[in-house]
Amino acid sequence: MALVLGLVLAASLLVWRVSTAPVHVRVEDAMVTVPTGPRGAQRVQLDTRWYVPATASARAPAPAVLLAHGFGGTKESVADQARYLAEQGYVVLTWTAQGFGRSGGQIHLMDPDYEVSDARRLLDLLARRSDVLRDGPGDPRVGVVGSSYGGALALLLAGLDKRVDAIVPQATWNDLGRALFPEATGKGPREGVFKRAWASWLYAAGLGRSVPDLDPATVRSSVPESTDTADLASGSRDGSPDEAVAGRARSSTATAFLPELARVLTDTAACGRFALEVCRMYHRVAATGRADAATVRLLRRSSPAAVLDRITAPTLLIQGTADTLFPLAEAEANAVGIAANGTPVRVLWFSGGHDAGPGSTLDRRRIRNATRTWLDHYVRGSGPKPPRSFAFTRVTSTGELGYDVATLGLYTRRYPGLDGDQPPRVVSLTGHPSTISSPPKAGPAALSSMPGLGIVTRSPLARAFVHDIPGQAVAYESAPLSTPVDVVGAPTVRLQAASPTGSAVLFVKLYDVAPDGGATLPGGNVAAVRLTGLPTSYAEARPVTVTLPGLVHRFPTGHRIRVTVAAADQAYAGPESPQVYVAGLADAAIELPRVRARTPSDPAAPWLAALAALAGLCALGVVGAFLVGRHGRSRRERLVDAGHADTPLVVRGLAKTYGRDHVVLRGVDFTVRRGQVVGLLGPNGAGKTTCLRILHGLVRPTAGEVLVFGQRVVPGASVLSRVGVLVESPGFLPHLSGRANLELFWRATGRPLEEARMPEVLEIAGLGAALDRRVREYSHGMRQRLAIAQAMLGMPDLLILDEPTDGLDPPQIAGLRRVLRQYAATGRAVLVSSHLLAEVELTCTHVVVLHEGRRVAAGPVADVAGDQGTVEVEVTDVERAASLVSTLPVASVARRERDLVVVLNGVARSEVVRTLVTGGVGVERVGPRGRLEDRFLALVGQDGPERIGDRP
């Protein structure tokens, strides 16, 4: 049966491999001229590239994808994604937006008359191809995908062209004015605080390597509306173009136009490939730090917010949690606006963004699968309907420089928004209002975000940048957290401030403070606030609610939550002159949104789920065959020995043989009772480690049985939850702290954290502040103490430890000795395997000695060690003492450096002492010669094991 099922599985894998083999893709580059500008009066050349799968033809037309790049990119920026979609059977059209790369034109920031109009002309091209599926004449079956700049295009195009069937915008904006001029109390861009660092970076990215030629269209768009320039570029009806221009140059209108032409030439040289109105807008806001009415109007034209009520194409919104340019609030505004029309909307958050790239491997896989599923259903018309669930990821670890992000995937049934779907958790903070100052033009000050380098905000290096400068910020801080706090959404605080000038620009930040004092800024984001109408007295100030940027973050146990109110931030434009404010939190508390989320199975693709189901069926068949063959034995294994229900451990006839003739254990019997600390001894190769593995179900015995509280031990037996184990080298995740490793281990058992008895266990570990350091920084001894603590989690009734003193120093060994004695005294039991015989003698109440796989001794330590009728006598003169004792009828006398070992043979100790003293030999000490080490060596020595009476 196993062979047949294996062949079925192999055949299924072969079918899957053939069905998922990459489709051959043909790539075609072309320069395309399209009308652009108001009413299409201008022409622009676009650098395009087609990705056509071999499966697409006039007889079998394929659905299409319009794939847009981000700001500053080109068609090459999305080449990998385009090829992937083409391999899935889509005809993909990519292009370089005007103003970038080899395309002509200028940058208008996704203006409906320019960049969006260009995309509409590209839809026309798709509709004219015979290998592209159409819904009707001039209407291609098409989805639009893009990130950032391209994401805004997807939204605007869907709002302005009903031919779009589905869109997947990622890491993009809702209102460009609000994104560049945020204000966290709910005011509009006119009152917002300018993101100077990001705007400067975007401006520099758009300048390009060369200044484009001045063409008539540029001149025309720059002339005041009152000037008649209709024929400037084309000449008059009656004369030549040169004569027309010369004639107008002599006219009063042309005379008024010439200074404007000179200004255009000057502006163009400083604006690179930006359109003049965009360039001038930047120059204005860079000088003033404020958005005027013209700026707000221009940015509004480039904002999806203006067309959300027209979007009917199903929308998958993907937004990053590490994005100081377009934070999560931009995606939420898009989701709310589109869903209000009844349009299907799904929201995903990932750990990347403009500050952290594409996120983790898990994020990249989830985004790719979600995008494909969305397009397959709504564009191709195949595949299951995508879920409406909300998926997001939480960062669990990063590399030293912020790279190598690891994340945990989570989801809920519905998108909860930035407010969460649970009552917010209110955390009390301690702090007081304080006077803070703002330097002129916000410098020097803390730097919350660094465009293009934001990924380092996840690394320890970022602490030097985000740290608030003394005198510029007031801080409020929580007590150390007793349990982890998960935040999903936008926290809120109530801010109160006073200013001599009646206004203030402030920045509210949320820090995660580790036990060592190191602070990180989750997501690298801050809440910028501009307050007006402030009183001069703090007591008269009215609180305002500040909504911090949305985030996904876990504050671990022992960490603190810190909220600071800063007067300056170098990433934003501040007041031109120095300012002094009094600021604080009105309620000394913060509200943290929460989401009840679960971990999904997150299959890599639909075929993987099907393959997993097939593999599961095969596995069930194999297991079923195995269970049928083992039915009789399984029934016996399920029996419970009620007579030993209160006995921690009973070992009966335990035997283990590997292969045909390698015998490791031979009929071993012993019992561990409550209150006992039992030492398992034996030389190397005696079978101790194999025995321990059998005791907690890792290895099946060849014969015999193990009972734990009367239940027979088999792999996975429920009674093993009452056993704590440390066998061989412990395994820990080196990038996590000791505390996090213990919590992760316990969570894997599926039991509540409060049952772990964590405070008691941590006290036993004795690691102090090192518990919150990464395990990779631990010494061998520290790892061993952490492993002992892990075995004691939940304070199990039976504790099995293999070489627990390995790596411990003498004081720690002595401490462990006390702990084990006390542990057993509470009614529990301990089994210890160790090669330190003297330590076993001091720690254990009973011992079991193995040799060559057999039990050669068992019983109380004192009985196994035995008195043996032997004494040690420490004397002042060994030679004379040996001579005097030899006159007595003792069995033997052995000389050492300062003492004699005398086998009495019935002679009283007092008689030996009297003989030595009367003979003139000083006696320093007399004691029994009954050490466990001697007895152990006698049991396993070269003469073979010597059996003694067993006392289980």
Automatic annotation (TrEMBL):
It comes from the Bacteria. SUPFAM superfamilies: alpha/beta-Hydrolases (SSF53474), Galactose-binding domain-like (SSF49785), P-loop containing nucleoside triphosphate hydrolases (SSF52540). The keyword GTP-binding does not apply. It holds the Pfam family PepX_C. InterPro entries: AAA+_ATPase, AB_hydrolase_fold, ABC_transporter-like_ATP-bd, ABC_transporter-like_CS, Galactose-bd-like_sf, P-loop_NTPase, Xaa-Pro-like_dom, Xaa-Pro_dipept_C. Residues 214-249 are annotated as: Disordered. The keyword Acetylation does not apply. Residues 649-877 form the ABC transporter domain. Keywords: ATP-binding, Hydrolase, Membrane, Nucleotide-binding, Transmembrane, Transmembrane helix, Transport. Residues 219-229 have a biased composition (Polar residues). This is ABC-2 type transport system ATP-binding protein. It comes from Thermasporomyces composti. The lineage of its organism: Bacteria, Bacillati, Actinomycetota, Actinomycetes, Propionibacteriales.
